[in-house]
């Protein structure tokens, strides 16, 4: 199983404030505390404090465990 990098919740929150100002959209990612599956939240630009696994149904405390994110930025070629 690959090792995923999760970072302290407060650090991620601070970094994302800057990315949003730069025009990015983010999707929060975290690693399930039960089975280790990598999860991505489906609500953009929102940090969740807990997350439920769709495989093992464990609820992960994301604030305690940490998280990461996927950045998206629209590109327009006019």
What does this 3D model show about the protein?
The protein has 78 residues and is of the alpha+beta class. The chain has one domain (9-72). 22% of the residues lie in helices and 27% in strands. The strands form two sheets. Strands 2-1-5 form a three-stranded antiparallel sheet. The chain has a two-stranded antiparallel sheet with strand order 3-4. The longest helix is centred in the first third of the chain and has 13 residues, at 9-21. The chain starts with 8 loop residues before the first helix and ends in a 6-residue tail after the last strand.
Task: Produce a short descriptive summary.
By secondary structure, this protein is α+β, with helices and mostly antiparallel strands. The protein has helices at residues 9-21, 62-65; strands at 25-31, 38-40, 50-52, 59-61, 68-72.
Mean pLDDT: 93
Low-confidence stretches: none
Strand order of the largest sheet: 2-1-5
Order of helices and strands: HEEEEHE
Strand content: 25-35%
